[in-house]
Amino acid sequence: MTKAVPEQLAQPRLTPGPQSHTPGISVVIPTLNEALALPANLTSVLTNRQVLECIVVDGGSRDGTCAYVDSLNDPRVTLLHSPPGRGLQMNKGASQAQGDMLLFHHADTQLTATNFAELGHACNQPEVLWGGFSHQFSEPNWKLNLVSWLHNFRFHRTGVVYGDQSMFIRRDFFQRVGGFAEEELEDLDFSDRAIEISQSTKLVTHVVTDSRKFVQIGELRALAHVVAIILRYQWERRTANERFFEPYR
Fold this sequence. Notes:
CATH topology of the domain at 25-138 and 160-210: Spore Coat Polysaccharide Biosynthesis Protein SpsA, Chain A
CATH class of the domain at 25-138 and 160-210: Alpha Beta
CATH architecture of the domain at 25-138 and 160-210: Alpha-Beta Complex
């Protein structure tokens, strides 16, 4: 069950200081039929020198996702295969990662140089163990703005990070928490276990999620689904994110 963060557990303050080493970032992207979104996503990731590697873990795509990844001529990109399920896929990617910081990133969300600059600064703060970015949609309207506002307000109040906020976790802390649950709502489950050890860090720059799926679903339906996830999770009842989005890839 998500818990409000006590006032004394405020966000860790990121203090500048001389550092001789910038930890490498391993980006882990779980995919399932993401051929439309993946090219722009990988371009935005691979243009950043802080990225040590990008591990794409595919859950059985049939739309050319794997063929696209195989076509890339970049030694930093690795394609792995896994049974479907974000928890399973991300755990497999993490098991192969070499970076000090793991960045779990959805295929339909974009990272910018500004995001990586802020994350690189956070990497050099030893008290920062895990967290996520602020969130917004690519084509905002008032209904999608409200979805993002709920994401960001919830993050501020509880410290819980959703997957579409590009969760970052130090590799040793990820192992300490025990990785992701291999079931629905793996991001919320991880957050609850991680908060028992260390408060999350909320970065101020925004990652941008493609509005396509939410527009196809219907913004009000998507908003209702987000609220349902929060309520069901608080009542310790699971809901299936993958089944909700399946027709809209």
